[in-house]
Write a structure and sequence with these properties.
alpha+beta, six-stranded mixed β-sheet, about 30% strand
């Protein structure tokens, strides 16, 4: 949506089927959400060494920014490289001879067509086609690996258990939650070159959405799992490494003067610039892939295994009304926050709602995303709309 910034984009290892395990995890995360939050393996590193400002996010204490500030962190990602601690994200492994049938039932992706070592963006839907969560799914030789949103991982695991018990009760599907597995996101145009100097592998042969295992020679050949992906609109990698080595790995990254640590603030502004949805803001169980503009993620044919929500999504696809997600920029001053109302310019009619809004450090203007009535999203419709910030401000849709 905004030129070059747009992008088309384990240590528990236990069977999660017994309800007691899920209940224990759920209680722990609920308590964390009400209190100080869990600490990732890098918590002390963030606080003591990097002087990060910590906030509670998805039940974890995570840095929102460092002394360099959010704007500098944002620009560093666009121009060079940054590293984010995303260890709050959930990592899940599926094994067993019926794992493929299971994943193609709970997700909308064409996972069976993936080559081993490749990944895809996908979603889990309710029977009504609401978006339970978005996820990156990777097919490997002996299992399927998923990264899910930190705030949704308990809900996702409970959903998987329900589907297994109701549809796959007599099938061989083993669900493993990879607890407290550190995960780092190294993002930016210099990310590949930075990592190339650390890892024992040729990254020039690793393409977007590829997944490989590598080693770190300077850390006694510690194993890392590497995906060429991210959520910033830039080239980048997500690196899963053992807790024993994660601080030393951060040291290696930050010894390179091209790299800065970056926090949640920059991560949010980067993904909005790239037009990427945040679950809980821009997509949720009240929204479906049609109105979210995410049908490109959905496999064209349901295949041998119809995914949950297929019939409802087909009906949504044929509907004439409803809303559609659009990206916008401000023509006049102001910044729209989530839940700000959107109006038509000509009829002063309430036609939608803002879901994300930021000041863009690179574009030097306020931008965001909103859902508006379908009538106002066509090429023939006026590009100008209004947003209510106590007084009306003009915004322009981006095509």
């Amino acid at each position: 949506t905004w030129g070059k910034y747009y992008t088309s984009f384990h240590n528990m290892h236990r069977n999660l089927l017994p309800k007691g395990i899920l209940t224990s995890i759920a209680k722990r995360n609920f308590c964390a959400a009400q209190g100080a939050g869990h600490k990732t393996a890098l918590y002390d590193y963030h606080v003591q060494k990097l002087k990060g400002k910590m906030v509670n996010f998805a039940g974890f204490q995570l840095p929102v920014q460092y002394p360099t500030g959010q704007v500098k962190e944002h620009q560093q990602c666009r121009e060079s490289a940054v590293v984010f601690d995303v260890s709050h994200m959930g990592q899940v492994k599926l094994r067993g001879k019926d794992a493929m049938a299971f994943i193609e039932t709970v997700s909308v992706g064409d996972i069976s067509s993936l080559k081993s070592g490749t990944s895809t963006l996908s979603m889990f839907l309710t029977p009504d086609a609401g978006i339970i969560d978005d996820t990156i799914i990777t097919r490997l030789d002996d299992h399927i690996h998923m990264v899910v949103n930190g705030g949704n991982k308990i809900k996702d695991l409970l959903h998987f258990q329900k589907v297994k018990e109701s549809i796959f009760n007599d099938k061989e599907v083993i669900i493993e939650y990879l607890e407290d597995k550190p995960l780092l996101a190294v993002q930016g145009p210099q990310a590949a070159d930075v990592l190339q100097k650390i890892l024992e592998i040729d990254l020039s042969k690793m393409y977007f959405m590829n997944f490989i295992e590598a080693t770190v020679p300077k850390l006694d050949n510690a194993p890392v799992f590497l995906s060429r992906t991210g959520y910033t609109g830039e080239d980048g990698f997500e690196v899963s490494i053992g807790t024993k080595y994660v601080e030393q790995f951060m040291d290696l990254l930050l010894q390179d003067t091209r790299v800065l640590p970056a926090g949640l603030g920059a991560r949010d502004s980067l993904r909005v610039e790239a037009g990427l949805c945040l679950h809980g803001n821009d997509i949720d169980e009240g929204r479906n892939p049609v109105e979210a503009g995410l049908m490109w993620v959905v496999r064209k044919q349901p295949g041998q295994h119809k995914y949950i929500g297929y019939e409802a999504l087909e009906a949504k696809r044929l509907e004439k009304g409803g809303q559609k997600r659009v990206c916008f920029e401000f023509v006049s001053s102001g910044i729209a926050r989530a839940a700000s109302e959107v109006f038509s310019v000509d009829q002063n009619k309430n036609i939608g709602i803002v879901t994300s809004g930021i000041y863009s450090p690179n574009l030097k203007k306020c931008i965001g995303m909103a859902y508006v009535c379908l009538l106002y999203t066509s090429d023939a419709a006026d590009d100008l709309l209004c947003v209510d910030l106590g007084g009306r401000r003009i915004i322009k849709k981006k095509k």
